[in-house]
Design a protein that fits this description.
The chain is α+β, with helices and mostly antiparallel strands. It is built from eight helices and 17 strands. A hairpin with a 3-residue loop joins strand 5 and strand 6.
């Protein structure tokens, strides 16, 4: 096994924008005024779950500007409560009072005519509290499914999920199997594209002539198009997290037989790197095979390692750990 070219390179993708909404918000037609243009550019989504949160109604106290009380959630049927205080929540737009009724998932403000004005979901408070305490339960999300929305057209993740049969299946099964959990959807935009290069001056017999540089420049000028990029990111995240409800790409990715990687094969790309960062939301993603973290890096060799050295390896250095190999 030796290095084919003195310079090898990899395509790298990292999310540039992340949004989260609950399944309820998505299926009830919830929309946002600010940021909708960003949501419309999200073509990768992750369906995930965490313990469902609710307010303890009789614990809530409001002084007109700040809210205090308790948020509760259940793990295996056992209730856990978290105290919170000094949560900013003013009575805007003519509101005169707050109410929190069964099932205590939302707190609403009402005006003097008894009309609903503004609401605060318990899940929003839980996300903030989860980043601070709650024994790191409320900000840990288990990845259940990874998908892409672009397909044959250019639909956003938000548009795709409202009529997605697998999403309906996950909602139904989760409600039965894990009734203490809530299902949420993360939507990602990937605009951070990079070409990582690796040079090994000690590689014996590696190509060093002008074709080495031309090959690299050709890849920089002719990267995979949007559809190919989204397909590779989806496949990479599926293989990395191995979510319960995914089937394709869950085990045998990357493979020399996958059409998803044909653009990389044509450009002689030797590796793929997919990064997912949720630190700006103060939460972590995990799966049965991946430890919870707010920054995940999935590394893939795209070459046959029986006759070509890995991009993540250089002469005389131990191979980089955790790299996912290509299947024949």
């Amino acid at each position: 096994m030796k290095r084919k070219n003195i310079t090898e390179y990899a395509f790298g993708y990292m999310n540039s924008y992340t949004a989260m909404m609950t399944a309820y918000q998505l299926m009830s037609g919830w929309s946002v005024n600010e940021g909708q243009d960003q949501l419309d550019k999200c073509h990768i989504y992750i369906i995930a779950a965490r313990p469902s949160s609710y307010f303890i109604g009789d614990s809530l106290k409001h002084d007109g500007k700040q809210l205090s009380g308790q948020i509760a959630y259940k793990v295996a049927g056992v209730e856990c409560r978290v105290d919170f205080a000094d949560f900013p929540f003013e009575l805007w737009d003519g509101a005169t009072e707050i109410r929190c009724d069964y099932p205590f998932r939302d707190l609403w403000t009402y005006n003097s005519a008894g009309e609903q004005v503004r609401y605060l979901p318990a899940t929003h408070v839980a996300s903030i509290l989860g980043a601070r305490n709650s024994e790191e339960v409320l900000n840990h999300f288990e990845v259940l499914y990874v998908g892409q929305a672009i397909g044959q057209g250019n639909r956003s993740a938000q548009q795709r999920l409202t009529s997605h049969s697998t999403f309906q299946k996950i909602l139904a099964l989760s409600a039965y199997d894990t009734p203490d959990n809530e299902v949420v959807v993360f939507m990602f935009q990937f605009d951070h594209e990079q070409v990582f290069s690796s040079m090994d001056g000690r590689a014996s017999g590696a190509i060093t002539d002008s074709s080495n540089e031309k090959r690299l420049m050709n890849a920089i000028r002719n990267p995979p198009d949007k559809k190919q990029k989204i397909a590779m990111i989806e496949a990479g995240l599926i293989r990395y997290f191995q979510p319960h409800y995914n089937e394709i790409f869950k085990i045998k990715f990357p493979s020399t037989k996958h059409k998803t990687l044909q653009s990389c094969k044509a450009l002689d790309v030797s590796a793929l790197i997919v990064e997912l960062d949720t630190s700006d939301l103060g939460l972590t993603l995990r799966s049965p095979t991946v430890t919870a973290s707010d920054h995940h890096i999935a590394r893939y060799d795209l070459v046959n390692l029986q006759n070509r050295m890995s991009f993540f390896n250089v002469t005389g250095i131990t191979e980089y750990p955790g790299v996912i190999k290509t299947e024949k």
